[in-house]
Amino acid sequence: MRSSLEEVSAPTISTVGELRASGHVHKPLRTEIRDNLLAKLAAGEDPWPGLHGFENTVLPQLERALIAGHDIVLLGERGQGKTRLLRTMVGLLDEWTPVISGSELGEHPYDPVTVTSQAAAATYGDDLRISWRHRDERYAEKLATPDTSVADLIGDVDPMKVAEGRSLGDLETIHFGLIPRSHRGIVAINELPDLAERIQVAMLNVMEERDIQIRGYVLRLPLDVLVVASANPEDYTNRGRIITPLKDRFGAEIRTHYPTELAAEIAVIRQEADLTAEVPDHLVEILARFTRQLRESTAVDQRSGVSARFAIAGAETIAAAALHRSVRQGEDEAVARIVDLETAVEVLGGKVEFETGEEGREQEVLTHLLRTAVAQTSRSYLRGLDLGLLVDAIEAGSMVTTGEQVGARDFLTGLPVLGESDLYDQVCDRLGATNDGQRAGAIELALEALYLGRKIGKDTDGAETVYGS
Predict the structure, then answer these.
(1) What is the distance between the alpha carbons of residues 259 and 265, in angstroms, rounded to a whole number?
(2) What is the CATH number of the domain that holds 39?
(3) Which end of the chain is more exposed for a tag (fewer CB within 10 A), N or C?
(4) What pLDDT sits at residue 289?
(5) Average pLDDT value for residue range 221-233
(6) What value does the mean pLDDT take over residues 409-419?
(7) Rounded Cα distance, 182 and 186, in Å
(8) Backbone phi, psi, residue 23, to 5°
(9) What percentage of residues in the chain have a pLDDT greater than 70?
(10) Per-residue model confidence (pLDDT) at position 124
(11) Which tens digit of pLDDT belongs to each residue from 270-309?
(12) Listed residues 255, 277, 299: the one ending a domain
């Protein structure tokens, strides 16, 4: 979302009379979303920028639900992009929409729904003042927690208004909650099953009759709001649940999933990771493959899932390790290398839930799966390249030292001399490596591939790793 609403100019129309003269047409929220979605699809424009891996599964279902005008609940394990998907729906709203100036619920000037706005419309007629609301302001999000109250979502009597002299029977004493305040907009509730069941009951009228009930007040507000929600299937059936009447009121229940293709997994990491140093493509691919290996492992609790945030945090961690090394070693370029992957495993293990029978083996499982990911990636980059000369040099007694605090230049100068061979250049060309940091990372991948292929040995002692015979 934009950080400042002033970046885009709002229309200058300021009264209802001017609005009518302009030919403006009021559309119900669902019609507005439907028309904008269909217009984007007809123009070949992507309505869901930044979402990867859902193109043939989740997004078509979501688009059909929105065209049908349904409220939606997304079911999926953690880190599958549910919240991002909900927030992207904002792009289907009109960029600017008129509202009655000062109205508590942001009502359309043609359709006032509260007593106060109706009185203002009757008093001022075509001179009724209007303001313009940006679509970012028409999206509200609430993380469901057990302490969420009916007042938070629906509303309650405001004691301050009563203290000002209004009587308890006066509708103007009501303080509206999040859902009424989202009138003519989208309200998203994350982790819906965590809402207490009595709070879910309070939502039933909003979802079906499109009105609200607050204490003993006789109140009928024709709310125009799209309710969307997310839920983890595990919470859905165990820790909490969506009560059956509320579940029935959602027109669409859509299952999300982790990326099914490696390319989509890589795209998510590249898009979301905030990197403080360069992380070459082969390392991002290793992290993506590592994450996918964890999702397929029988040692990992797959009901909990392995979030996309795992690989994103991994990329950020190895970038930080590279920057840390470059500053301490006085390097010009901060480039992550294979040796930095161990730092990621050390700090990310807590983000994975293991099966009960795997207690004590967590580090062993992580190390094994990381090595598998490195082996798969090295094959994809170095397939067909003969590394025999490097193996021969190491078997003849040469050793290569690397480590968290071994600079790229020191690593490169410590490599065995291979005579007239351009093997190192071939390895670097395969990985598109040009500067010292990239070249060191490329050759380190080749050495690790040889070790995993049992062609050479490796000894790790604290901060240093030595490749030898």
Answers:
(1) 6
(2) 3.40.50.300
(3) N
(4) 96
(5) 90
(6) 92
(7) 6
(8) 85, 15
(9) 93
(10) 94
(11) 999 999 999 999 999 999 999 999 999 999 888 888 889 9
(12) 255
Closest CA to 104 of 35, 159, 168, 171: 171
Say how many residues make up the chain: 469
CA distance 394 to 400: 8
Say yes or no: 366 and 388 in one domain. yes
Instruction: Please measure the distance between the N-terminal and C-terminal CA atoms of the chain and give it in whole angstroms.
Output: 55
Print the domain residue range for 41.
Answer: 5-255
Taking a C-beta distance cutoff of 8 angstroms, is the pair 428, 282 a contact? no
Examine the domain organization and report whether 201 and 299 are in the same domain.
no
Using CA atoms, how far residue 346 sits from 39, 143, 375, in Å, is: 48, 30, 20
- Going by pLDDT thresholds of 50, 70 and 90, the confidence category of residue 156 is confident
With helix as H, strand as E and coil as C, how does 279-297 read? CCHHHHHHHHHHHHHHHHC
Residues 241 and 302 in one domain: no
Structure tokens at 376: 């798969």
Which range among 181-195, 220-234, 251-265, 427-441 shows the weakest confidence by mean pLDDT? 220-234
As a whole number of angstroms, the distance between CA 179 and CA 213 comes to: 12
Provide DSSP, 235-267.
Answer: HHHTT----HHHHHH-SEEEE----SSHHHHHH
Query: Of 86, 93, 91, 87, nearest to 27 (Cα)?
Result: 93
Identify whether residues 228 and 319 lie together within a single domain: no
Burial class (CB in 10 A: 0-12, 13-18, 19+), 425: exposed
3-state SS class at 119: helix
Other beta carbons within 10 Å of 295: 18
Q: Is the pLDDT of residue 1 over 50?
A: no
Give the long-range contacts of residues 118-124, CB within 8 A, separation 24 or more. Answer: 121/16, 124/16
392 and 274 both lie in a single domain: yes
Distances (CA, A) of 441 to 202, 277, 335, 409, 414: 58, 13, 8, 11, 14
Question: Are 247 and 279 part of one and the same domain?
Answer: no
User: Do 360 and 246 fall within a single domain?
Assistant: no
Residues 15 and 115 in one domain: yes
Interval 103-136: pLDDT, tens: 989 999 999 988 889 999 999 999 999 999 999 9
DSSP 10: P
Q: Is the pLDDT of residue 346 over 50?
A: yes
